[in-house]
Amino acid sequence: MFKKNVEAKALQRLSGADKKKLRRTAKLRFPQASDEDIDAILPPKVEITVGKYPSRTLVYGIEGELPMIFDIDGRGHELFPTVYALWKVPDLLPAFTLKDGEVSHFILGGADLMFPGIRVPPEGLPPFQAGQPWSVKIPGNPAPIAVGTTTMSDTEALKAGLRGKALWIAHYYKDLLWASADGCYVPNEGFYDDMVVEDPNFASASQHDSSEDPADGKQDKADADASDTHAGDPSVDSGTIEDVTAGVSELNLPEEKTTEEPTEEKEHQHLSTEEIDSLLDKCLLQAIHTNVKDKDLPMPGSTLWSNHILPCRPPGVTLDIKKSSHKKLSKWLQSKSSSGLITAKEDKHKKEVVLTGINRKHPDYMAFKPEKRVQEPVEQHDNAVAEGSGSNQLEVDETYKPSSHVNPIFGAVGADAGKYYSASEASDVVFRYVEKENLVKPADKAKVILDVTLCDALYKGAVKKGSAYPSEIHKKDLGSTFINRMQVHHRVARGNEVVVRKGAIRTVQIMTERRQGNKKMTRVSGLECFLLDANSLASELQKKFACSTTTAELPGKKGQYEVLVQGGVIENLAKHLVDQYGVPKRYIEVYDKTKK
Fold first, then answer.
1. Residue 204 in contact with residue 322, Cβ under 8 Å?
2. DSSP E strand stretches across 211-362
3. What Rg, from alpha-carbon coordinates, does the chain have?
4. DSSP assignment, residue 198?
5. What Å distances lie between residue 329 and 174, 188, 377, 427, CA to CA?
6. Mapping DSSP to helix (H, G, I), strand (E, B) and coil, where does residue 302 land?
7. Is 106 in contact with 169 (CB distance < 8 Å)?
8. Predicted local confidence at residue 380, as pLDDT
């Protein structure tokens, strides 16, 4: 919906009568919202502005602040809250929960939400009708990432086997509506530039909030900033499945809980304007010393703020640009540009200040000593390390091998074309080639000029006959395009045993179905991908569940076996694979065909 940059034709204040009408319409459109929820997004005693766009879309916001509601048809029939409104009131709309954070990569890329990417709870999907507004959330993160309209009812979805499009996405984090706001921000550190992941402190925070007043809990949850961990990859649905139960990520697996001292957080609750200004300067210097490289420029101010400035703030601190003396992100960046530390200019099309250069010889930059922060071990989305019992530690990596298309690039920079590379390592190779050949466009440093070698590596054989080859490419697209021309492999290691296979890693499939006499049978397949022996697992499960087990070779798949377990042990079996063998939860698909 907001994928193209379109400016509002007019911006005007609403009259008192129009504000009341808008509140009534919002209350009808969002039936589960309370009066307090409506007051939070449309305060009764502040000025509300409306921006009119060429497509008849109306965007309502608090004057001088953030957009809160948008109306697609301009008649109130298709009214939606923005992500800013949902971050204030996370439960304003019912929400679909994704299987994991990796699925959010597709949503933030502009794709609609498909049923295979949704986590289905054990009791099944909640009732819904076609055309209703729903939001999208990530497991373990209370802040919604998108909002849209349901394409069918729950009954129609079940008849379709939970396939197809579930939600037409109207607005999402990182689209142009989000970016159009002055001082656009992210609700917690789980929000990345291209993906949103779970918030590890959300569980402990919710336990702490449960002892407080519920109304206060909502506000605290909306204002909290927490650290992040990476979630896993989405699973692709296959076969005709009658019903899909909750994935293994629904299992309440034991996790270590960390206790945080509330006193440290209270120390940073009340900062003066001067202290906030000083903290902003410190975070900027820390970011440009450690995170922001010259090859990343130019960089939008919103990206600098959310991806680099906020992660550099001290633990427990909520950094709000509006409480500084500058009041707006654009004014703060322009003041730093005037001091000579950075170079920034306003993009007249996007109405945003863009960081174009860093003066690394500036006295402030030379005098600043960046802090060495201890990185907590996190689970990377392309390097999953799942710990089971002692000798069963499992490592899963997605790697890439140079193909004939990109071999000249590797040869030009002296890189080995016969080894395997991670995504970041492969991307670094092509940027090294760009620097070596001096291919950055002088007039626009965000773009790279394609010479013959680089153009062939990226597009040879991919461009239709008769079509012209591109002459340049944006830096943000260069790495992903280059990686797509390489061969995908995956590496699995368990103890001293290491295997590298071609293609993406397949999931473990666990399915329960009924046999003759109304008896249940559980099947598990795909064990070979994680270096598990089917016969050994069958013997172990026989003792653990006190039931009969057997193994059988999968039809048409030589060397691949499935284990058949008597009874409906679907959840216990999945939990056993995670706890005992360290199989990451995101690589396990669970299907229950016994439910109608």
1. no
2. 299-300, 342-347, 352-358
3. 26
4. -
5. 17, 18, 32, 31
6. helix
7. no
8. 39
| Residue 103: C-alpha distances to residues 232, 236, 481 (Å) | 9, 11, 20
Q: How far apart are CA 583 and CA 576, in angstroms?
A: 9
Alpha carbon of residue 296 to chain centroid: 20
pLDDT reported for residue 596: 59
Tokens at residue 275, please?
A: 């202290």
Burial of 117 (0-12, 13-18, 19+ CB in 10 A): buried
Report helix, strand and coil shares of the chain as percent, to nearest 5.
35, 25, 45
Indicate the SS3 state at residue 445: coil
Measured distance CA(569)–CA(523) in Å, rounded: 10
Residue type, 402: P
With a cut of 50, which residues of the chain have pLDDT below it?
203-204, 206-269, 374-391
Give the whole-angstrom CA distance, residue 452 versus residue 14. 57
Q: What is the pLDDT of residue 408?
A: 92
How many Cα atoms are found within 13 Å in the side-chain-facing hemisphere of 362? 18
Q: Which residues lie closer than 8 Å to 336 by C-beta, 6 or more apart? A: 281, 284, 342, 344
- What does the chain come to in residues? 596
Sheet holding 58-62, edge to edge: 10-13, 48-52, 58-62, 67-71, 79-81
* Tokens (6 digits) for 211: 């002892």
Strand partners, 352: 347
Nearest CA to 147 among 70, 62, 72, 82? 82
What the block records as the tokens of 553 is 């070779």
CA dihedral 63, 66, 71, 74 (to 10 degrees): 30
Neighbouring residues of 565: CB distance < 8 A, sequence distance ≥ 6? 521, 522, 523, 524, 538, 541, 545, 547, 549, 573
Q: How many angstroms separate the CA atoms of 594 and 521, rounded?
A: 10
Label residues 47-61 b or e (16+ Cβ within 10 Å = b): ebbbbebeeebbbbb
Question: Pairing state of beta strands 588-592 and 508-514?
Answer: parallel
Per-residue tokens: 560: 């691949």
SS3 137: strand
Query: From CA 59, how far away is CA 240, in angstroms rounded?
Result: 42
**Can you tell me the distance from the alpha carbon of 138 to that of 316, in angstroms, rounded to the nearest whole number?**
23
Q: Compute the distance between CA of residue 524 and CA of residue 554 in angstroms, rounded to an integer.
A: 11
Q: Nearest 5 degrees, angle CA 145-CA 220-CA 178? A: 30
Which long-range contacts does 499-504 make (Cβ < 8 Å, 24+ apart)?
Answer: 499/531, 500/399, 500/420, 501/529, 504/398
Q: Are 570 and 593 in contact (CB under 8 A)?
A: no
Tokens 């950094």 belong to residue: 319
Q: Phi and psi (nearest 5°) for 61?
A: -150, 165
